[in-house]
Amino acid sequence: MNFHIAKGVFDILPEDPDPQGAWRQSHLWQYVEKTIREIACEFGYQEIRTPLFESTDLFKRSVGLTSDIVTKEMYTFEDKGGRSLTLRPEGTAPILRAFIEKNLNQIAPVHKFFYILPMFRYERQQAGRYRQHHQFGIEAIGNHSPLQDVEGIHLLWTFYERLGIKNVHLHLNSIGNRETRHAYRIALQEYLKPFFEKLSPESKERFQTNPLRILDSKNEADQNILKEAPQILEFLDAQGKAHFEQVCHLLKKIGIPYQINNKLVRGLDYYNHTVFEITSQELGSQNSLGGGGRYDGLMKEMGGADLPAFGFGAGLERVIQTLLAQKAPIPSPSTPLLFLIPMGEAAALKCFEWTCALRKAHLPVEMEMSGKKIKAAMRMANAMHARFILVIGDEELHSGEATLKEMATGREESLSLDLLIHRLQDAFQKNT
């Protein structure tokens, strides 16, 4: 029986033989994840990891019963105890659940988390979107200041900037508080009523359940109808307007360009006040690299303290595909500094001792272990892109000297085996 990978998911491999699978190579993911950890640390965020599945009710209550995630995309199953569980479709709700359950608000007034976790959504596969996708996100809990909004946006902007991604655009909007959204919802419905029959089927469905999501429609006819629609910024109260103006002012101060997009609402029901999205044209129509916003009040709705919060999520698949499309500089995968080729049983035992000693000295070393002849072993060293090779036989063991060969140049040097670690440490430091 032949087994095949499920639809909408993928393997991450050291090398992918598929020409379209360059973005699935593990060294790219390691590089991006290392960059995330460095930046998160610089911004004062600490890592959090939550379980792969949670109670289904957690997502229904937090994400919103009318959201696409809850109505169409969740992977939900019943366990042997009859409990309804759902594979994690987004990162915020599980983190707030952990925060409330562990009473973290009693430890400190402000908490800043980051995560790198797989998410699961049953959706149509397209560029950068998969049924299991990987997300980098942050959740900053306990700070209502516009400074927190801008710090979060700055963190994500810095991430793309440090990776060398170009031509990114920050879209910004405010959807105000609950009262603002209620008043705007009525005004938007009144505006759309004469055009109802011309709306797309999806927007007709959203008209009653969540009309703000019509603003996010990708349907061209819907967007033409919306050209003269009222703008939510006109409905902000004094506090909401002041908050948004300060966000815009701070972004200008730190040199992050933005454009106000009055149709930006995001796809999750819990957002309020600042919402943002960062896009790249490299991904075609599905051009979002990441986004998020403020979600004050969500923790209280979930049974916790009434704490303000801000967060974002960024899909790593899209980030890596954009990196490759833009030919951004990417570190090469790690390769052995030395490849040892033993000739004979005694040499193999000695080479294994050296391999262990060299690795203990933090040097990347490989050896041929299966007794291949020298030409086959050389091919292995080439395939691994080893920098040096060292062939060890009875003669080398007896004399205590061997010839160290640099693969790229063919240069050879006679070397005392007692000095092998020092010689390689010197070569490794010069190369890193």
Helix content: 25-40%
Tell me what the CATH architecture of the largest domain is: 2-Layer Sandwich
Which of globular, elongated, flat, extended, rod-shaped describes the shape? elongated
Largest sheet: 8 strands, mixed
Low-confidence stretches: none
Kindly provide the name of the CATH class of the largest domain: Alpha Beta
> Radius of gyration, rounded?
28 Å
Quick one: how many beta strands? 16
Q: State the secondary-structure class.
A: alpha+beta
Question: CATH H-level name of the largest domain... which superfamily?
Answer: Bira Bifunctional Protein, Domain 2
Summarize the structure.
With 432 residues, the chain is α+β, with helices and mostly antiparallel strands. It has 15 helices and 16 strands.
Key structural traits:
single chain, 432 residues, alpha+beta, BirA Bifunctional Protein, domain 2, Rossmann fold, 2 domains, eight-stranded mixed β-sheet, five-stranded mixed β-sheet
How would you portray this structure in words?
The chain has 432 residues and is of the alpha+beta class. The chain folds into two domains: 19-176 and 236-325, BirA Bifunctional Protein, domain 2 (2-Layer Sandwich); 338-431, Anticodon-binding domain (Rossmann fold, 3-Layer(aba) Sandwich). Helix content is 38%, strand content 20%. The protein contains 15 helices and 16 strands. The strands form three sheets. An eight-stranded mixed beta sheet has the order 1-5-6-11-10-9-7-8. It has a five-stranded mixed beta sheet with strand order 13-12-14-15-16, sandwiched between helices. Strands 2-4-3 form a three-stranded antiparallel beta sheet. α5 packs parallel to α9. The longest helix has 18 residues, at 146-163. The chain is elongated and about 90 Å long. The two termini are 47 Å apart. The model has no long low-confidence stretch (mean pLDDT 91).
